[in-house]
Amino acid sequence: MKKKEEAINIIEGLKKAYPDAICSLDFETPFQMMIAVMLSAQCTDERVNKTTPELFTKYGTAKKMAEAPLEEIEKIIHPCGFYKNKSKNAIAAAKVVLEKFQGEVPQTIEELITIPGVGRKSANVIMLEAFNSPVGIAVDTHAKRVSNRMGFSKETDPSKIEQDLLKVFPEKYLYDVNHLFVWHGRNYCDSRKPNCLNCPVNQYCDFYKKL
After folding, report:
1. How many C-alpha atoms does 71 have within 13 Å on its Cβ side?
2. What is the pLDDT of residue 2?
3. Which DSSP state fits 152?
4. What proportion of the chain, given as a percentage, has pLDDT over 70?
5. What's the rounded mean pLDDT across residues 96-114?
6. What φ, ψ does residue 26 adopt, rounded to 5°?
7. What is the pLDDT of residues 37-47, one digit of tens each?
8. pLDDT tens-digit map of 1-31
9. pLDDT tens per residue across span 110-137
């Protein structure tokens, strides 16, 4: 397990490497952010961004999505994969937002995870991107891989990895961790061919030290 001082050194190093690290999903409202995150499951952000313009033009609000024909949503989001399940969740989520939260996406993790299709990882992303209020760390495949290789956590369950990360990162770094681990996973810490030799923080990495 990393110590806080070392964890901060890693984040500061990654901030220098990726000064422009931001969320790559396109959205205009919290509701659109929620739907985009749903679509991004096992799908690239690039593909989601090619799909959401048509989707949000036609069904970009909770009211419109709740009233949308299932077959129409399926047709639009088909390129994102798992379209049948994602379509059902999108419509169900819109109905819950309307009926339970008066049409506004809630701003707490506890409430967000009661919405169909929104798990803790998605809720963390929504809190960060839609409300600029990170309270946790979204552990996707990139964050999981970086966390395990760096030595932040030996766990495989995302929720347990998140808890290990929260033990070493001060609250003020939560915004950065969410973005930087994803960017680092895409740019250097690849699943098959990690570019360890040129990694900007390899001096802190347990995986690199064992090579």
Report:
1. 0
2. 83
3. S
4. 100
5. 97
6. -95, 135
7. 999 999 999 99
8. 788 999 999 999 999 999 999 999 999 999 9
9. 999 999 999 999 999 999 999 999 999 9
CA-based nearest residue to 186, from 145, 149, 150, 152 = 145
Q: What does the pLDDT average to over 167-177?
A: 93
Catalytic residue among 86, 121, 144, 164: 121
Indicate the CATH number of 30-129 among 1.10.340.30, 3.30.70.20, 3.30.300.20, 3.40.710.10.
1.10.340.30
Q: Which CATH number fits domain 4-21+137-209: 1.10.1670.10, 3.40.50.620, 3.40.50.720, 1.10.10.10?
A: 1.10.1670.10
> Which token pair is 122?
């998605």
**Alpha helix positions (H), 81-210:** 83-100, 109-112, 120-129, 141-150, 158-168, 174-187, 206-209
Identify the active-site residue in 20, 75, 100, 140: 140
Q: Is 58 a catalytic residue?
A: no
Q: Which amino acid is at 63?
A: K
Question: Is residue 164 among the annotated active site residues?
Answer: no
- 121 neighbors 138 (Cβ within 8 angstroms): yes
* Torsion angle defined by CA atoms of residues 184, 189, 195 and 196, in that order, rounded to the nearest 10 degrees: 100
